[in-house]
Each structure stands twice: as C-alpha cells, then as structure tokens.
Predict the 3D structure of the following.
Amino acid sequence: MKFLKSACVLLAGSLLLLNCKSEIKEEVAIKDTSTIYIKGTMDAELTSPPFVPAPIGNRSAKKLLVNMEILEKEGTMTDGVQYVYWTFGGTVPGSFIRTRVGDEIEFTLSNHPDNKLPHNIDLHAVTGPGGGAESSFVAPGHEKTFSFKALNPGLFVYHCATAPVGMHIANGMYGLILVEPEGGLPKVDKEYYIMQGDFYTKGATDEKGLQPFDMTKAIKEDADYVVFNGKVGSLTGDNAITANVGETVRLFVGNGGPNLTSSFHVIGEIFDNVHVEGGDLINTNVQTTSIPAGGAAIVDFKVDVPGTFILVDHAIFRAFNKGALGMLKVSGEENKKLYSGVKQEGIYHPEGGTIQTMPVDKNKKEVAVTTEKSLAKKIADGKQLYMTTCFACHQGEGQGIPNAFPPLAKSDYLNADVKRAIGIVLHGKTGEITVNGKKYNSVMTRQTLTEEEVADVLTYVYNSWGNNKTNVTISDVKEVKNSH
Ligand SMILES: [Cu+2]
C-alpha cells in the first residue's frame, strides 16, 4: 500500500487520483480480536481422524481446556509393515481440536512415562514464540500447560517442533486445529478430517517387518509411503468416509509433510468451495487444490450422484503406488440426468463415415478370431494389456493395494472360477467379495476389451504370480458373454 500512496501523490491532479483513492479505501482493516470477552470455561472435545468435534455454532468465546497426551506406539503402515509412530493423542494425524476466534485455550501437553523422547507442540494458530513450542517442551512422564488466545480464524496445522524436527514430523507428530469465525462456519451435512503425510522406511516400499525411520531418504525427500491419515488404506474399504446423495460434505484437509506438497483431488467431484490455504479466501469450482507441507485447506461440495469417489494426491504415482488413496462412498438414488453411466457402446472408426464398414458376416468373423494363438503369444499380448489396463489398480506384480484393490497374485477367488473371472473383466464388479481371506467392497470399472483381449489378459494373469495356469480361450469368453 505504501507504494500505491506515493504513486498517487506523484500523479495527483491527474484523473488517476480517483482510482487510487478507491483502491486505498478497499484496504482490509485488521480486526482486533484480542479484546473478545471470555465467558465461562469448557473442556474441548477432541476427536480421532476421520472425525471432527461438533461445530461451535453461535457459542460465545470461552476458556477452552485442551488435554493432549503424546504416545509413542507401534502401528501398521500397510499389510505386514509395522512402524513406530509418535502421536498426539494416539493417532496420526493427532486429535482434531475445534475452537473459535476469541477463545482462550489452556493447553496441557503430557508426555506418557513409557515414551522415550521429549516432545513439544507448535500450533500454527498460536500468536506467540514458537507457536507454543518453547512453553510446551516436555520430557517423558511430565506435563506442561500454557495458554493462548485464538486471534485468527482458519484451519491450522500443529506439529512437534523438537529437534530433529523433521524426524518428529515424519514419525506422525502433526494434526489440525480449526479456529471457527464468530457464529461458526456455514452448516453442512457431513464433516471429515483428513491429513496427508510422507513416510520414510529403512526397507523399500512394502518390505515386510518392523521398519525404522530412514533419515537419508527423508533428507532426499524420497518417500516410501505417501498416505492419508497415517497409513495405507485408512480411508478405503470399510474405513471409507460416507455420505448420502443430496448432502453437503466438508473436508478439513491438512498436510503434515514433512516434505511433499499435496495436489488434493477427489475423482468425480468438483469442490464447490475451497478455503484456500485454510484462510478466509474462498475459491469456487475447483478441481485440485494445492496443500503445502505445514498447510491446510477446507473444501466443501454437494454430492449429487451415488458411487465411490476416490480421494487422491493427484501426483498420481503417490496415489497408486505409495498409498495416497482414500474413498468417499455416496449412497442413494441414481440421477441419470446428472450422470448417465454408459449410454451406448459402439465401434469407433477413425477413418470417418466415408469409408463404409463391411457388413459383418458373423460366422466368418467367428472363424477368424477363434483361431487360437500359441500360449506364449497370448501371455505376451496379455502382459502388454495388463500393463496398460489392469496394472493401475491390481499393481505390477498382481499384489493389489490393501483394502482397495484385491490381489490377482495367488488369488483364491480368481483360481476358483474361470467363468466368474471372465465375467468380471467383461462386465466389471461391485459388491463384497473375499480374496485370500480379506474382504473387498469396491468397484472395478467395466473394461472395454475385445473377446481376444479378455482371453489374453486373463491367460497372462492365470499364468503369472503363482496362479493355476489356466489357458483362457476366446470360446470361453464367448460362452460367458452369451450367457448374460
Ligand atoms: Cu516430538
């Protein structure tokens, strides 16, 4: 603004003066929230992800007592991989704190006596040295209390700031604190708490066993896991967040980092509103929002059609190969006007309409394609197809993704019934199934493949990764197709 003012002086007398004046008028006044009067005391409700405490509504500012316990504990990163997490309140991310502007928060941080290390907390919602870090530094078996007044509304990250800070954050020491404006945020039907984080293990991604933290990889920013809510699969399958058609959904999304920026996206939805960087600025009609490490965003949208909507970091290898994948399951009536599903399927002729298609002689075509290729050729063609079509979900070695995509490697479900497997590739699959003792309840999209391609890809799958070596023929595929 200073520059603008001096420019105005220079240009005084010219027409531009009017412009300058009106711009200066629009300067946003700094609100003094430090004098908001406090009435009474209450205990804060703290929640574990993906849940959030009740909205503040129109309650007056209060003294809010927050008691948070630090726990160092072993947990599961993904199937067969254990990790020692350092947590605020026993979960990654830590307990959600919900307060309002003007509240005086009396924060007690206790460090469980079984813990090995001292910790502290830096809340980005604090106006004060270190965001509270200096006043909250606490050794195992001790507790510390400090207080602060919430001066700015918004969604803020909190994290441990004990050296080496990066290591404490990388082990899961972060969470969100929401400071609601006077009168609260607009009402919505569903609210959830999601936080992304990147993890670094001594072993490679998915290497089994108890995996210690790897400082070298962390410094190189070479993450083994990029996940929502502390582990692979925290928001998939039975852990998916839910809503009903017609409801409004608000997601409080944070990024603990320590290193990576999140390109947060929900496949098949558009954010109606995004509180950019968790502040007051609202952007509308957003596809993907950028959430920096140590930052947050509030996104909301109405769900209009049923289905499974996939939450991802759209830096997409992180979603399909490192775990940054969640699910929002929306149930209710379909609305064909808003989303039709497949309306029609046909043959695409890149040559255009001028080249006439030969009338199809059904018998002739059948003879042509029922000529089976050699098994080796089928497996080779099938592999190519697998790597472009199935791989994204079922993964390179057919290992799948826990709680999201079932394995095809040594799959008892696959090996038990060839016709059923053909049917799945032809028509897609929804509903609960059990593969190798684990339940999946998700959606496999319908694949548009020719009969030959279905035969090839399944022959490849059956002849890989310890499966039963079935040779799926085109006539098998035809049989299943015609039985529908
Ligand atoms: Cu710590």
Q: What stands out?
A: The pocket of copper (II) ion is lined by residues 86, 119, 160, 162, 168, 173 (CB under 6 Å). The first strand starts at residue 41 and ends at 43.
